[in-house]
Amino acid sequence: MAARVPYADRRLLDAGRQTRAMVWIMAIMLFLTVLTGAFGLGALAASQTLERQLAGRLTVQIVEANGPAREAAAATALAQLRAMPQVARAVPVDRDALAAMLRPWLGEQGADPDLPIPAMIDIELRVPSDAAVAEVTKAVQRTAPSARIDRYENWMSPVAGFMRVMIALAVGLIVLMAAATATVVMLAARAGLDSHRATIEVLHMLGSTDTQVARLFQRRIAIDTLYGGVVGTLLALVTIGFVGTQITALGSDLLGGIAFGARDWVLLIALPIAFALLATVAARLAVLRALSHYL
């Protein structure tokens, strides 16, 4: 029966723990991974906020050169919209607000009362659906055939698509980080195996099995990875907090919707544990394979 490796012997392979670069490599890897994860979760939160804000939102534009006719058509359309069961809210957009939005392009002429600015109505549907949009469109165009109905989702679809690309990119980067971590761990395990070859041969002569020797390496690397992961994660969380304060100061409606929930924080904090488990498995596989070939 193989001899059990005592605790004192297990420390033989940990003699250079203070000087090993593994802790700092893992700290850097986890710092970048947690930041990437936060970026992906932030993009997901922004995408969900955008979807909630835009779902069922429409804008009616009534284009009519004649001012009185335009206002009459807008008033009739507004009354009809407010009577529809599909519409939760219908509010006319103030002309002064439209002029203010046009000022960067038209200057002070945007406030000219003779300027034929379209009358606009902001609509929020009770239940967002294509059928409800079609009903609203028919009702408005019966009153004002030249009216144009725009869905907010169509305006912002490029932004939503960009958010999806960013989320996919974050997931891909995390996968690459995990693969790079496994590769670094395997190389470190092989290097440690070569540097402690004489010690391992002694352990084998004392009756230790390859599995017991592999356990020494996986324990050392797991601890190094966990230490480094905790350091990198803490630094990343501090960075995330700083960036969050800067985003809040911007006052952007879209960026202001980036708020991490309990699930998001749990996922970020779980990353160093997941990477430590990954490093443990990678180290064990690398050492067992090396021992079966060279020892």
Task: List its traits.
295 residues, 4-stranded antiparallel β-sheet, alpha+beta, 8% strand, single chain
Describe the secondary structure blueprint for this structure.
Elements: H1 7-10, H2 22-54, E1 57-62, H3 67-83, E2 87-92, H4 95-106, E3 119-125, H5 130-143, E4 148-151, H6 152-195, H7 197-205, H8 210-250, H9 253-256, H10 262-294
Antiparallel strand pairs: 1-3, 1-4, 2-3
Helix pairs in contact: 2-6, 2-8, 2-10, 3-5, 6-10, 8-10
Rg over alpha carbons: 31 Å
| Main sheet: strands, sense, barrel | 4 strands, antiparallel
Low-pLDDT windows of residues: 1-10, 15-19
Element order: H for helix, E for strand: HHEHEHEHEHHHHH
- First-residue to last-residue Cα separation: 19 Å
Overall residue-averaged pLDDT value: 77
**Main sheet: strand order:** 2-3-1-4
How much of the polypeptide forms β-strand, as a percent range?
Answer: 5-15%
Number of strands: 4
**What structural class do the secondary elements suggest?**
alpha+beta
The percent of residues in helical segments reads over 70%
Task: Give the helix tally.
Answer: 10
Give the overall form: rod-shaped
